[in-house]
Each structure stands twice: as structure tokens, then as C-alpha cells.
Predict the structure.
Amino acid sequence: MKRLLLCVFAILLCIIVVIPVYSEDKVRGVTDTEIKIGQWGPQTGPAALWGAVARGTGVYFDLVNSEGGIAGRKIKYYLRDDGYQPAKTKAIGKEFIDDIGVFTVVGGVGTSTGMAVRDSLMENEIVWVGPLTGSDNWTEPLQKYLFAIYPKYTDEAYLLTEYTAEKLGKKKIAFFYQNDDYGKEGLKGAQKWAKKAGVKLVAEVPVEVTDTDLKSHALKMKQSGADAVIMWVLPKHAAIILGTSKAAGFQPQWVACSTLSDSAMMYNITKGLWEGVIFGNFLDMDNPLIKKYKAAQEKFAPNEKYTGVFFLAGFMFAEPMVEGLKRAGKDLNTQTFVKALETIRNWNDWLGHDCTFTPTDHQGMKSIFVSKCGPKGEPVRLSDWITFTDDKK
Amino acid sequence: MSIFLDLVIGGVSVGACYALIALAMVIIYKTTEVPNFAQGEMAMVAAFVAFTMMDDYHLGFWMSATITLVFSFLLGCALEISFLRPAKDLNILGAIVITLGAEMILYGLAGWKWGANQNPFPVPFSEYDGFRIGSALVTEINFWTFVTSVVIMLLLFLFFRFTKVGVAMKAVQQNMFAAKAMGIPTRRILTFTWGLSSMTGAVAGMLIAPLATLDPNMMLDPMLKGFAGAVLGGMTSLPGAAIGGYMIGLIENFFGGYISLEFKSVVAFAVIVLILCFKPSGLFVKHFERKV
């Protein structure tokens, strides 16, 4: 019996020791016919609205596969629900690395959820393209395997504040922000512009994620005499503050972050108050690719309920990744993939604008454009792409 | 001065919603001594039912509201019958855990059935127009929320004081065994209590939804504030709990308006801690007697 146990133990030891040696020369998540790609996204819980992103990516990969895949390989896509809870995201990250063995990770909604896995993805040399927030954490400092696409909130806030002051001629600008990293990074950008322009924001009003009664917030902004308010909040708070402010007799020019750029949805939940609101955009809805992507959605996900901006963002944030995979070609491994991504310069064959990755700068997109919500909730484009150029730093 | 009036109006109107939640919690607490943590989600589900009636079946607001009240009554009864009644040797802690479980089930169900999107909840009162007190505007919805909460509080007060069922409910709370011995159908009374409480909560849900936009998370904050209001006023006193709700609304608004917006949400809980330290039975409950 003892001898048998010893044998079993010896065999197990051999397996543990030998197998990694064999897999060393294989690339994790890549075979001749397949590339494994993972994404987490909240399909349930408080942020489930953004879950559409990950489903959009799924449709995009179906489309890529139906067109023959990439260098003879088909994408195998793993979508996991983290419910917007960092602890769950962490578990998913572990699953991606240890159990499934994905080659690369795409998208992923949320800053805190992303931060829960950033370091372990980087340590395991897994390339991560296009986190779905504009946080500074992705590119500052530079992470070798992380490629950000979403324009940074600080840059976007800078550009929107500048636009509000210079193009809309507003003199007293207030800032209404969610009291966490997301809102504070927006505030930082607006303050940066104000400092450069030598002016002060007339009010900086924070809102907690759980707040539902925003009367005192509205009154505070009204008291400041603001003629424009820039919002860095959740759709829910944007809707509540517009209603509450109107009831309090305060109707400034509202300006919203690109996370609120689905004007049809915002128009609906604000019962029409969204008309006239100006907002930043990262996704070009007039791009001819949209038609193709909508057709793909009808073919591959005919039951999808939400097909707005964030569903299409799922396509957009995976486009540079697919481009990188194409450029890496048949000889695909982490290093060739990173090199291929870093050859993307001023690339415009996608829903965004001027995608550029260099070995020293992994912030792929730095532009937004400005739109206004029309009388029926439709977006009316007001500006061309505006880029956060180096002189604004 | 104008901001003072505005803050009073804001505080009272949101306080009215807290008051309704507080009342709903107190109804159950009065009969079972269990704080029902599923109250918020019950109200949220009810608001979703009303929304579905209006949006999918194109019924009018009043028709939808009536159907919703019936639904929420049945929902309350169903929860009591299916979750609390079968539990063996139920103590208060066990019952609280059951209400937390029910809360999660309802939350999950709502997310699955209606999704996480925000929905616009239409009401027949204007959210932006109304009448003025001095320079401050009282919108129609603010006004009617306040009136509704006061009317419901009075109705409940009268119900507990002057109807047989109301008195029976009190008897069940005081001593369930004796109440049973006196021929009170205690099980039915408990079920009815849950139904009544659920209906009161549903009214709160339908009044909060138009202001806060309807989604499965809608009641998270109002529910905690309502509970805070109930603790502040006294968990066994209907008028006390309602006044507690108004007070929380006012305290919050004044704190946010004059002191700090960052800490506006937590001030309610600071108040609770103070109350629990100095007058644990609540501000408006005269005697706290341990029943033997």
C-alpha cells in the first residue's frame, strides 16, 4: 500500500514538474486555430447597464470569426459577469489566468474592478486592451501590457471645460461630480483648465453614489450663480439633478461627460429634460461601420435589448485589439502582439479617432467631439474631433 | 432666507417618503418586533409593477396604482406565508435574516425581469410646477407626497386604535400566546400585517420613483433613511416614526445646505447613534417596557 501511495505521489510530482516545461514553448491561449480572449462586465447589479459593452464585443468577435477569423485563427470569447464588484473581478482574473488561460483581455467596465486585476494581469504578462473607463491608472505610469483607449477623464474634462468657456461663452462654470475616482479625475481636469485660464470654478459639488435626494446639491449650485454646470456622475444622478434643479428654478447650460453620451436613453429617463444638454463623445455614430455592426447585431444577437452607444462601444474597444492581432499575424505571442499594437499610428479604420500606441505612450485615443441633445433626444454634432494635445498638459 | 425655505421644502418632501417607509416598517415591527429589511425592495418591485402597467399595458396612472396596491398587498402576504411562516422556532434574529434573504431575492428578480436601466416613471402631478411659499417653489409632487404621507399616517393611526383587526394586531405583538388563547387568528393577523405594510411601502415606492428614476437600486438609500427615521421616532409609534422620517429629511437637507454635502448621507446615521445612546426607544415613545 505504502509503495502504491509513493508511486502515485511520484507520478503526481512528475506531472506538476514536467507539464509547465512542455507548455513553456507554447503560447498561453493560442493554438493554430484559436485565440482565447476574456472580458468581464457587469451583467447584473448596479452597473448592469454597462454590461452591454461586453455583449457588443461578443457580437464583434462573431463578426470577425464569420469573416474568416484572424490569420486562420478563430476567436474564442469568454464573457464573465462580475456584478461590478472588485472581489468578483479578482476571481475572474484568476480564472482567466489559471483555469482558462486566455491570451489577452479586452474591455472591462469599471475603474475599481479593473484595478483589482491590473497588477496580476501585468505580472502574468497578459495584454489588456481598452479598459472601459478613462482613468489615469491605466497609463500612468506606463504598463507594458496595458493599452488604454478611452480618452482620459482628466483630458476630457479639460476639453469640455475649455469648450464651455470659449465656444459657449460661459463665465461661471460649476462642476458636479461623483465623490470617487471617476468624478474626482473629471474635477482635476476642469481645475487644470481653470488654473491655466486664470479663473475659478464657481462651485465644486460632490454627490455620493447612494444619494437620491439632491435638493441641497441643486441649491448650492444655484447659489453660486453658475451659468453652466459640467457633470461627472451616473445617469441616475444626472437625471435627478436636472429634475431637481428645474424645480428649484435653476436652469444653467448642462454639460455632460462622455459616460452620459447616450442621448436617446438620457432623454427618455429625464422625460425630455435632456434636450439642449451638451456632452462629450468618444464614439462616432455617423461612421459607416455602424451600419455593418448593426447588421451583425441583428444576425448574431437578435434578442439584444440595448443596442445604444455602449453596446457599440463593445465593438469599438475591441477594434484596435483585432487590428493588433492582424498585424502580429501567424507568429502570435505576447511579445509580437505588443510590438504589433505599438505600430498602430493615427489609425482611423474604426469607430474612434486617431488610434496611436507608441512604446512610451499606451493611451490610444486622446480626442472627443461635442454634441448636443436635439428636441427628440437625437444627438446633434457640434464640433469636429477635439484632441488633447501636448501643449495642454 | 430663500435657501432656508427651499431646504425646508426639500427636507419635508423627501422626509415624507422616508416617513412612509418608516410607517411600513413600524407596522410589521409593531406586531412581530422584526425590522423588515425587505421593505425597500418590496416597494421597488411594486413601483416596477406600476411602471409595467403604465408602460406595457398602457393603463392610466390611477388604475395602475390601484392594481399595484392590490399586488403589493398580495406580495406582502405571500412573503409572510412562504418565508416566515414555515420557519421553525423563529427568533427575531432568524426573522431578520429571512427578511434580508427576501430582500436579495426581490432585488435579483427585479434585475432579471426589468434590467438595470433607469426608467422614467410618469405621474399625473407636475414635478416642476406648483405654488410658491415666499420665494420657494412647492412642486405638485412635493405637495401630494406630503399630503399622502400625512393621510396614510392618520388612517393607520385610526386603524390601530379603533378597528378590531388593528387592536388584534397590537394584541399579537404584546403576547402572541395569549392572543391565540383569546381566539385571535394570529397567523392570519401576521399575514395581514405584512400585506398592509407592503401596501404602505408601495405608496412610498410610487412617490420616490418619479423623482429618483426607477431602477432596482432605487430604494437602497430611501429604505435606510426610512429605517433611520423609524429608529429616531420610535419603532413602536406610528406618528413617532413618521415624524422621525420628516426629521431625517430636514436634518439631511440642512446639513447638506449649510455644512457639508460630502457628509450629508451619513449624518442620518450619526443621529441614530446618538439616539440609541441617549434614548434607545426613540424620541416619541414615552416608556420602554420590557414585556414579560
About this structure: The beta strands of chain B are 130-133, 136-139. The first strand of chain B starts at residue 130 and ends at 133. Residues 104 and 190 of chain B are 22 Å apart (CA to CA).
